[in-house]
């Protein structure tokens, strides 16, 4: 491997890690909670919330749950904490914390462990009293990790429709809209359940634009979506005929008004509910931009909301940089992005949206050769891309050749959604292990103009 190319890969990894570090959930919680004279203060966006709460019910939900609850427990005096503090997370991010009940549940598809955990959360929140605080520490993955289906729907039926949505090309907001209307906790229903207690949520956002109602399906946020929206989404992706009858019946009852809508913004519970955004994709995008500049790259944000079909996004990116190269570069360039693309599954291979984007980028760059040396990284900040042990992919000028030399037909593997095995053969998987955080995805394209193909 040529020295410049090796350096590009090293730099891309370092820049990516700076983005993960900026989303460190432990430090973020520490920065937003403080205690003086046995009284908890919570840093909100533009104010401080502090009252003489008699008890604090501590619940962490999501991929960053363990790191977040560890920080909170270190700050909040034990005599203020209600019994049975809970952290529900995925297996990769679970670890033991003294005095905390840790539950490792299924993700991205919910399981029976998650169902049991959701029932515990329901019971704990419902037991909170006036002059007490329910403190929720929320991070990405919460939708799957806390499944509590509405009456008449079982977990298998809800899992089935979630699986269909995730493989249909539906975006995260559409998936969450349906999940909210099949749940007892999502879409503001947890906030309603907490009455008459106060509720505050510290949020680590994995959703572009940081829409609080979309993060983990917004359990403590008013929901503007409706049963009509949920039904329309299932029709949009031709899933209505594949939807279990119990779910159809529930949604139809919602359309008819025989069961209540999710809580809207004028619901009384929200007068006692507040939130603080403590980490997000935009914060991490700023961090990787700054780190690239420190490494002496001219730096440009390609997109702060990268969305769309992963392989098409990759092709568009190659076209963009080819035009930019034609204009001439005087020094190395870093193009960075943050977002969350989608994949429409048509094959039976293994991979995720970041691996698919990386493989598609290598293919597109072979078809439209870039007159420079380059390295492209696309990775999930949680360290897991789809149902694999990889965070994504990091490809370069030589990826396509390595694939061909290994007997891989890149286009065929991409068509079969088999990016994981393709990138494994070319040694281009991005493997970080579980990071303990989750703020969507980051992309880094490094270009060195002195190399000519």
What is the topology?
Blueprint: H1 3-22, H2 25-32, E1 33-36, E2 39-43, E3 48-50, E4 55-61, H3 65-75, E5 85-90, E6 100-105, H4 112-126, E7 132-138, H5 142-145, H6 155-166, H7 172-180, H8 189-194, E8 198-204, H9 227-236, H10 245-256, E9 273-279, H11 281-294, E10 298-306, H12 310-327, E11 333-339, H13 353-367, E12 373-380, E13 392-396, H14 399-405, H15 410-415, H16 419-425, E14 429-430, E15 441-448
Parallel strand pairs: 4-5, 4-7, 5-6, 7-8, 8-9, 10-11
Antiparallel strand pairs: 1-2, 2-3, 11-15, 12-13, 12-15, 13-14
Text of the CATH class of the largest domain: Alpha Beta
Q: What name does CATH use for the topology of the largest domain?
A: Rossmann fold
Mean of residue pLDDT values: 94
Spatial ordering of strands, largest sheet: 6-5-4-7-8-9
For the largest beta-sheet, the strand count, sense and barrel status come to: 6 strands, parallel
Which characteristics define this entry?
453 residues; alpha/beta; glycerate kinase, domain 1; Rossmann fold; six-stranded parallel beta sheet; six-stranded mixed beta sheet; 16 helices
Please characterize this protein's 3D structure.
The model has no long low-confidence stretch (mean pLDDT 94). The chain has helices at residues 3-22, 25-32, 65-75, 112-126, 142-145, 155-166, 172-180, 189-194, 227-236, 245-256, 281-294, 310-327, 353-367, 399-405, 410-415, 419-425; strands spanning 33-36, 39-43, 48-50, 55-61, 85-90, 100-105, 132-138, 198-204, 273-279, 298-306, 333-339, 373-380, 392-396, 429-430, 441-448. Helix 7 (172-180) crosses helix 9 and helix 12 (310-327) packs across helix 13. With 453 residues, it is α/β, with parallel strands linked by helices. It has a six-stranded parallel β-sheet, with helices on both faces. It has two domains: 3-18 and 282-448, 3-Layer(aba) Sandwich (glycerate kinase, domain 1), CATH 3.40.1480; 25-148 and 183-225 and 262-279, 3-Layer(aba) Sandwich (Rossmann fold).
């Amino acid at each position: 491997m040529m020295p410049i190319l090796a350096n590009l890969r090293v730099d891309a990894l370092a820049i990516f890690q700076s983005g993960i570090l900026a989303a460190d959930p432990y430090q973020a919680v520490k920065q937003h909670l403080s205690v003086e004279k046995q009284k908890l203060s919570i840093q909100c966006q533009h104010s401080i919330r502090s009252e003489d709460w008699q008890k604090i019910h501590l619940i962490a939900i999501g991929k960053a749950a363990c790191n977040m609850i560890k920080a909170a427990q270190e700050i909040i005096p034990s005599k203020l904490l209600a019994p049975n503090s809970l952290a529900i997370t995925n297996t990769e991010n679970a670890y033991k914390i003294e005095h905390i009940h840790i539950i490792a549940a299924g993700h991205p598809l919910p399981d029976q462990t998650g169902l049991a955990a959701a029932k515990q959360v329901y019971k704990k929140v419902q037991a909170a009293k006036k002059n007490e605080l329910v403190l929720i520490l929320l991070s990405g993955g919460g939708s799957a990790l806390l499944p509590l289906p509405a009456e008449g729907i079982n977990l298998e039926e809800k899992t089935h429709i979630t699986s269909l949505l995730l493989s249909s090309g539906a975006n995260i907001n559409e998936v969450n809209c349906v999940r909210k209307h099949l749940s007892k906790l999502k879409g503001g229903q947890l906030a309603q359940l907490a009455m008459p207690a106060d509720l505050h949520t510290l949020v680590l956002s994995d959703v572009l634009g940081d829409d609080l109602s979309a993060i983990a399906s917004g359990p403590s946020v008013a929901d503007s979506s409706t049963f009509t929206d949920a039904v329309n989404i299932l029709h949009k992706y031709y899933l209505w005929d594949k939807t279990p009858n119990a779910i159809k019946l529930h949604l139809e009852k919602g359309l008819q008004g025989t069961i209540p809508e999710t809580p809207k913004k004028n619901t009384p519970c929200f007068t006692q509910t507040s939130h603080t955004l403590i980490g997000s994709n935009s914060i991490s995008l700023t961090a990787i931009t700054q780190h690239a500049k420190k490494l002496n790259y001219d730096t440009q944000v390609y997109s702060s909301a990268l969305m769309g079909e992963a392989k098409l996004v990759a092709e568009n990116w190659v076209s963009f940089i080819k035009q930019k190269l034609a204009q001439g570069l005087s020094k190395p360039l870093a193009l960075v992005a943050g977002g969350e693309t989608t994949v429409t599954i048509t094959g039976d291979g293994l991979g995720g949206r970041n691996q698919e984007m990386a493989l598609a980028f290598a293919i597109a760059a072979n078809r439209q050769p870039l007159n420079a040396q380059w390295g492209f990284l696309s990775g999930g900040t949680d360290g897991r891309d789809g149902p694999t042990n990889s965070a994504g992919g990091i490809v370069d000028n030589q990826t396509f050749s390595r694939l061909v030399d290994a007997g891989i037909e890149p286009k065929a593997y991409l068509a079969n959604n088999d990016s994981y095995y393709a990138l494994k053969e070319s040694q281009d998987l991005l493997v970080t292990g579980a990071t303990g955080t989750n703020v969507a995805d980051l992309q880094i394209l490094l270009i060195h103009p002195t190399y000519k193909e």
